[in-house]
Amino acid sequence: MLTLAFVLAAPAFALPAYHDAQIPLRPLDHSQGYEFDPLLHLPGISPYFDAVGFGLEHTAPVGCNVTAASYIVRHGAIYANDKEYEEYIKPFLWKLEQHRQGWSGPLSFMETWQSPILEDKLEDLTPSGAVDAERVGKHLLARYPDLVPETKRVLADKKSRTYDTAQNFVKAFPQVDKIEVVRVTQNTNGSMEALIPHKSCENFSKTPGIKEQKKAIDLYAASVSHRLSPYMPFELEANDVVGFQMLCGYESAIKGTRSEICAQFTDAEWMAYEYAWDLKYAYMVGPLNPLSPYLGFPWLHSQANLFSHIAKHDTPGDGWPDKQRFFLSFTHREVPPFIATALGLFNSSSNAAEQFPTDHINWTRAWRMADLIPFLGHVGMEKMTCERGAVHGDGPGEFIRFIANTAPRPIPDCQDGPGASCPFHLFKELIGKGAEKHKDFHEVCDAKDKE
Ligand SMILES: *[C@@H]1O[C@H](CO)[C@@H](O)[C@H](O)[C@H]1NC(C)=O
Ligand SMILES: *[C@@H]1O[C@H](CO)[C@@H](O)[C@H](O)[C@H]1NC(C)=O
Ligand SMILES: *[C@@H]1O[C@H](CO)[C@@H](O)[C@H](O)[C@H]1NC(C)=O
Ligand SMILES: *[C@@H]1O[C@H](CO)[C@@H](O)[C@H](O)[C@H]1NC(C)=O
Ligand SMILES: *[C@@H]1O[C@H](CO)[C@@H](O)[C@H](O)[C@H]1NC(C)=O
Predict the structure, then answer these.
(1) Ligand 2 mean position to 347 CA, how many Å?
(2) Atom from ligand 5 closest to the CA of residue 290
């Protein structure tokens, strides 16, 4: 998995320009100047970057045009997630305040280091998060120059971080003054189940995986604490190690420049951190939670209906402006993983179920959430018309393609179309079957057995 950080295309976030050293045809030495970048290994808390994916081209395949697209986007950088702050970061910062003296060697800078996290604004969008949102908006405008300018309605939920992200995102669009950001606060036409399924599901909780994650953290944190002890005035407990590492992600995301803390941990320590969080997300919002596909299908189902309506009636229906062909919804970190799980976008290529042992890292897992849920992480769905591929005969055909953080990702069960896309009629069947199988959203979600 060396390739992860290796061929990083064009990050929206300004990383140092060592990519020059990574041009394959002019190798400098055997490792071709490979450098590890922790910001690419922080599931959930890193500034946005384009995922590498599998190398499928980002532009529509030759002979195809994108005729509609819908994206569901996580909000931009916040100061800190409440829970992560209470559990990992705050206890570390508290000890830091008690021990301002006694840092040395590589950690000397910690004597004067100030936390960038504003406690009274924890879950607010940061200024740099706002700038990044506009940047990703600009990227999508460049990707869909004909579709984006017709967008008049955009969805967010009631939280200010999604609404503010939406407002900043659309600043990149030429028709910004004509755009209405709608706050979805009622489940009209299933809109809340599609946008924030976990909040419409009483039986969903954030606890699955806590036990297992703690084991994975304990496995590496003790050695980190031991390694850093000569430079520190107090002993790092396991959760302090995690908090210290998290500050690399949050400080970089808040300030828009790389935090000095990022350089204080070894590559192996970052990979262990990443694994502990991939494991947690697998249990909470991924393949190890039986609720995940139930929570991913409402969005897929409603987008499949939307695209069918466009194909049949040449308007999107459902109260959308007639000419709108590009759809945007702003949500939270849980939702892209539900959708990815429902489709198998982050499944391993073998049929084996994803496995997350707690006594060693599973290096060959496909479930890598750093690539899906940085701030502004997104899943996009493109509808393409291609010259060939009609169901009957040789006329134009329609296809669906999925995008995760700009890189196309095939649906394992349906990838025979151009650029590994899925023929639209097969896609509708797939979603129909999935929706049928997972239609008991309320059956599994309305917690009868919960007091
Ligand atoms: C719900 O769907 C109906 C019919 O498709 C549509 O007329 C109505 O505007 C929709 N409501 C909202 C709030 O989108
Ligand atoms: C992806 O993995 C999950 C769980 O490991 C499995 O249930 C699902 O069928 C897989 N999906 C695909 C499309 O392979
Ligand atoms: C890692 O997970 C894959 C499935 O993604 C599984 O086939 C493999 O056995 C696991 N490896 C280890 C070492 O746990
Ligand atoms: C794609 O768009 C171009 C330019 O508008 C057009 O010439 C071409 O026929 C379109 N192709 C298909 C398959 O619709
Ligand atoms: C709630 O979800 C859990 C899995 O997270 C599942 O085992 C349980 O059966 C669900 N409860 C209901 C009422 O479906």
Answers:
(1) 6
(2) 4
Contact 64, 418 (CB under 8 A): yes
Q: For ligand 3, atom 12, which residue shows the shortest CA distance?
A: 362
Cβ(194)–Cβ(260) below 8 Å: no
Mean pLDDT of 355-377: 94
Indicate which atom in ligand 2 lies nearest the CA of residue 287: 4
Contact 299, 335 (CB under 8 A): yes
Centre of ligand 1 to C-alpha 318, Å, is: 4
With 0-12 / 13-18 / 19 or more C-beta atoms within 10 angstroms meaning exposed / middle / buried, residue 231 is middle
How do residues 114-165 score in pLDDT, each as one tens digit?
999 999 999 999 999 999 999 999 999 999 999 999 999 999 999 999 999 9
User: Which domains are seen in the chain, by residue range?
Assistant: 38-79+125-204+290-440 (3.40.50.1240), 82-123+208-281 (no CATH)
Closest ligand to the CA of 291: 5
Q: What is this structure's pTM?
A: 0.90
Q: Which residue bears the tokens 């506009």?
A: 134
